[in-house]
Amino acid sequence: MARQPTLEFWYEFASTYSHLAAHRIEEAAEKAGVSVRWRPFLVGPLFASQGWTTSPFNLFPAKGRNMWRDFERMAASYGLPPITKPDPFPQNSLNAVRVAIFGQDQDWLVPFSKAVFSASFSKGQSIAEPAAVVAILDSLGLDGTQVLRAAASDANKTKLRVSVEEARSRGIFGAPTFLTDDGELFWGNDRMEQALAWASGERPPGLR
Amino acid sequence: MARQPTLEFWYEFASTYSHLAAHRIEEAAEKAGVSVRWRPFLVGPLFASQGWTTSPFNLFPAKGRNMWRDFERMAASYGLPPITKPDPFPQNSLNAVRVAIFGQDQDWLVPFSKAVFSASFSKGQSIAEPAAVVAILDSLGLDGTQVLRAAASDANKTKLRVSVEEARSRGIFGAPTFLTDDGELFWGNDRMEQALAWASGERPPGLR
């Protein structure tokens, strides 16, 4: 039996367009016959390398104003719940991403990740504090306190740093990003469908 | 008879994604029953206000590398000719945009604009020098030298400056941008279809 093609989905919990992709990719990937590997990471260190100390949507106000409106329009067009704007934005996603990295090979990674996005962007809840992350884990039937403690181990912190450097070395500069087996990079929720099509072997006509 | 809804298409000759939109919008607008007003402008002064002295695709190399690949993929998926990369990038678009501003109410504005984009992004030609712009005008059966001279008048230069300030005051921060009669702003070639749908009265379900 042929191996199912895979697509890596690199996402950041503070990223608005990662929220849109996270809530759509399972259904779209199933239709495309593609298996998805969820890759949580942090974009902050990549932004810092290009001199940005916060989200570009804060640094460039006109761009930010349009993003919130666009985010709201896109969520509505996908039939997702109305958007709530996290306060502050961006949320500090360090505790959540450490847990996701710890859960990388666990069957709760995807439901946990979607629950974090929903808390932040559909329910107006903070995801920054340890207690917020514990509450999300608990709601999934896990022992949140224990998972958070394990996620704070030095070994797991190193795993997160390695993931961020892997992202950088593979050309990632923002989130969400989709990477195919043959190294093709697609940036942004807007490219999810093309990334899945590419992963499943489709190519735009005439493309070298 | 009801007035046809209109959509403003703000574009910059140095902008890669403006090229994609310029070659697609006429057909898409006809299907949507929307009349398009072509609005040439310069993004440089807007970028300068946020501290950028050149294209963000040059300032942020990983983003730039992906843009060229994405641009190539998107052009192929639309059935447009293969992309050529202008050297240097971005091209100085001042002469071309002055001509377009001068031609704002002329029936040659659209063919001229598409010809400039094709020269730059499909034929690998420079669009920066006066002679390049004259050649494009001549190829459309106009008197290029005379048009270029008229476009360099103080009145026309002022008209361009006013357009750029209009763009800024209406929330534009990049190109291409689509603006509807009711002030809804859509940024980027990826939003052309949504902008046309909005202009024709469609709204995402549940959107306030």
Protein architecture, described:
Chains A, B: Belongs to the GST superfamily. NadH family. 2 copies of one chain form a homodimer. Chain A has 208 residues and is an alpha+beta fold. Chain A has a single domain, classed as Glutaredoxin, CATH 3.40.30. Chain A is 51% helix and 9% strand. Chain A has a 4-stranded mixed beta sheet with strand order 2-1-3-4. In chain A, β3 (177-180) and β4 (185-187) form a beta hairpin. The longest helix of chain A has 18 residues, at 61-78. Chain A is globular. The A-B interface holds A 46, 50, 59-60, 62-63, 65-66, 69-70, 72-74, 76-77, 79, 82, 168, 171-174, 184-187, 190-191, 194, 204-208 and B 50, 59-60, 62-63, 65-66, 69-70, 72-74, 76-77, 79, 82, 168, 171-174, 184-187, 190-191, 194, 204-208.
CATH class of chain A: Alpha Beta
- Oligomer status: homodimer
Number of domains of chain A: 1
Q: Which percent band covers the strand fraction of chain A?
A: 5-15%
Share of residues in helices of chain A: 40-55%
CATH topology of chain A: Glutaredoxin
Count of DSSP strands of chain A: 4
Kindly, what is the distance between the CA atoms of the first and last residues of chain A, rounded to a whole number of angstroms? 29 Å
Low-confidence stretches of chain A: none
Q: Rounded to an integer, what's the Rg of chain A over CA atoms?
A: 17 Å
Largest interface: A-B, 34 and 33 residues
CATH architecture of chain A: 3-Layer(aba) Sandwich
Mean pLDDT of chain A: 95
Number of helices of chain A: 11
CATH superfamily of chain A: Glutaredoxin
The backbone outline of chain A, from C-alpha atoms, is globular
Structural class of chain A: alpha+beta
Major sheet size, sense and barrel closure of chain A? 4 strands, mixed
N-to-C order of helices and strands of chain A: EHHEHHHHHHHHEEH
